[in-house]
Amino acid sequence: MKNLKNIVLSSIAATLLLGINACKPKNAGNAVSADAAIKTYVAPGKYDEFYNFVSGGFSGQMSVYGLPSGRLLKVMPVFSVDPEKGYGFSEETKPMLNTSHGFIPWDDLHHVQLSKTNGEYDGRWVFGNANNTPRVARIDLKTFRTAEIIELPNSAGNHSSPFITENTEYVVAGTRFSVPPDDKNGDVPINTYKQNFKGTISFISVAKEDGKMELAFQIQCPGFNFDLSRAGKGVSNGWFFFSCYNTEQANTLLEVNASQRDKDFIMAVNWKKAEEYLKAGKGRKQAVKYAHNVYNEKTHTATSEIKTEVTVLDSKELKDMCYFFPCPKSPHGCDVSPTGEYIVGSGKLAALIPVFSFDKMIKAIAAKDYIGEFEGIPILKYESVLYGEVKKPGLGPLHTEFDNKGNAYTSMFVSSEVVKWNIKDLKVLDRAPTYYSVGHLCVAGGDTKTPNAKYLVAYNKITKDRYLPTGPELSQSAQLYDITGDKMQLILDFPTIGEPHYAQIVPADLIKNNSLKFYKIDSNENKYVSKGESTTKVVRDGKVVHIYITAIRSHFAPDNIEGIKMGDEVYFHVTNLEQDWDVPHGFAVKGSLNAELLIMPGETQTLKWTPDRVGMFPFYCTDFCSALHQEMSGYVRVSPAGSNVPISYSLGTNLPKDEGLKK
Ligand code: RUQ
Ligand code: CUA
Question: Pfam families attached here (predicted)?
Answer without folding.
Answer: nos_propeller
